[in-house]
Amino acid sequence: MSEKKKFIRKRLPPWLRNKNILKPSSHRIKRILRKYSLHSVCEEAKCPNRGECFSMGTATFLIMGDICTRNCRFCAIKKGRPAPLDEKEPENLRLAIAEMELNYVVLTSVTRDDLPDGGAEHFKRCVESIKNMDRDIIVEVLVPDFKGDLKSIETVISSGIDVFNHNIETVPSLYEKVRPMANYNTSLNVLKMAKELNSKMPVKSGIMVGLGESMEEIEKTLDDIKNTGCDLITIGQYLQPKHSNLTVDRYLTPEEFDKIREYALNIGFKGVFSSPLVRSSYLAHKMFVKVKNG
């Protein structure tokens, strides 16, 4: 019987070490999630900031289950055939958010290509459940591409969300390798449609670096994203979560992330988070407040 291959990650540079420390206060968030049968992308995607965010009493909710219908090679979330939607999830979200005493909520999901609308109506029910509890709670959604369907995007935006987020993830030359079931132009169009549907609503996106792209490709991708009308952008270092995922090509230095931030600001993004451990929902409230305050 062959021995299972041990997962050995490339040695991390100093600026990426010792970040994910689970503090005692983070266990409260985990208990509440389990109590209401909810998932967080923080755990499912093995986010390096989950210890910090949990200790601050924040979490990004992963709705529509924890099994994705796509096989993006950077992602740690399980792939396969998802279970039917949990009709109690909108109510359970409301109860968990009330118990956590959150005033800024991020909802994301697995991709549900098995559903006719990609789960847009379920997104809407979840957002409305939160807003019906307290209209002052700010809700950001990080959505899949819905196969570029305008009606699905309209459904999500009509729910009363405050921020619309859809990640481009990587440069176009790497899409076949990184996101084999997705399309670069489709994702750009999702951002464009969202902004056209509600020009006053902040639209946000994010990319990973360190997968083999050049600095010129990063800048061209940022140009493409900005041209959709996107307001906010996050740029972070890709970290290999499991042995089955893509390996890291290289670790960009903090100085390189500063250069990317400067470029993004210069081409007109209103808010830019560019740092090795930045993820799409990291300090989302801080970015929202910064943009709202000009």
Description of the structure:
With 294 residues, the chain is an alpha/beta fold. The protein has a single domain (20-292), classed as Aldolase class I (TIM Barrel). Helix content is 36%, strand content 14%. The chain has eleven helices and ten strands. It has helices at residues 26-35, 41-44, 50-55, 89-100, 120-133, 150-157, 175-178, 184-197, 215-226, 254-266, 284-292, and strands at 39-40, 60-63, 67-68, 78-79, 104-109, 138-142, 163-165, 203-209, 232-237, 271-274. α5 (120-133) runs parallel beside α6 (150-157).
Quick rundown:
The chain has 294 residues and is of the alpha/beta class. It has helices spanning 26-35, 41-44, 50-55, 89-100, 120-133, 150-157, 175-178, 184-197, 215-226, 254-266, 284-292; strands spanning 39-40, 60-63, 67-68, 78-79, 104-109, 138-142, 163-165, 203-209, 232-237, 271-274.
Roughly what is the average pLDDT, rounded to an integer?
Answer: 89
Shape: globular
Which radius of gyration do the C-alpha atoms yield? Answer: 18 Å
How many DSSP E strands?
Answer: 10
In total, the number of domains comes to 1
Protein structure class: alpha/beta
Task: Determine the number of helices (DSSP H or I, runs of at least 4 residues).
Answer: 11
In spatial order, strands of the major sheet run 1-2-5-6-7-8-9-10
- Examine the coordinates and then state which fold CATH places here, giving the name of the CATH topology: TIM Barrel
Indicate the proportion of strand residues: 5-15%
> How would you name the CATH homologous superfamily?
Aldolase class I
Order of helices and strands: HEHHEEEHEHEHEHHEHEHEH
Residues in helix, %? 25-40%
CATH class category: Alpha Beta
CATH architecture label name: Alpha-Beta Barrel
For the largest beta-sheet, the strand count, sense and barrel status come to:
8 strands, mixed
Poorly predicted tracts of residues = none
End-to-end span in angstroms? 62 Å
